[in-house]
Amino acid sequence: MFSKLKALFAEESKEPEKKEHTIALAVTALMVEIMQADDDINASEHQAIFKAIEKRFELNHDEVEALIEDAKYAQNKAMDLHQFTSLIIDHYSTEERIDILKELWLIAMADDHIDSYEEHMIRKLAKLIGVYHDEFIQAKIDARQEVIEGRSV
Fold it and tell me: Which of 44, 64, 108, 150 has the fewest CB atoms within 10 Å, measured from its CB?
């Protein structure tokens, strides 16, 4: 089992599609982590993840659902978050990582309440993906503005 997960997250892949799926799985796993942070998984958070993944990776409905299920499994089996965050650092610019952070805020805000566990986890993930505190705050402000304007993910 461990060897399967290790292979799943291997950085070197001969197939570009497989590499992209690995990155997509890593991003989705972080989103699942936020959804599960407050032990109150609801449809609005799931929908926020669905919309973010659909938009970010240009996937169809079935592909998004399969990716979310794969990410839930991978996230639940992971020993830590490094296997996900290291891929994100390696494959995304700082601006893209800030955008991912904003998406995490939008997921936390989807149920109209940011739980302290969600905020703590987003703060931890920001550090793990190399986003500075001022960028962390700006991502939160930008996400809140999107919610207010009704443009979320």
Answer: 150
Closest CA to 108 of 25, 38, 23: 38
Contact 34/122 with Cβ under 8 angstroms? Answer: yes
Q: Could you tell me the residue range of the domain that residue 47 belongs to?
A: 14-149
Compute, in degrees rounded to 10, the torsion defined by CA atoms 31, 34, 40, 43.
-30
Tell me if 2 is assigned to some domain.
Answer: no
Handedness of CA 9, 13, 15, 19 (dihedral sign): positive
What's the pTM?
0.84
Handedness of CA 150, 42, 57, 124 (dihedral sign): positive
More confident residue, 46 or 41: 46
Q: What CATH number is attached to the domain comprising 43?
A: 1.10.3680.10
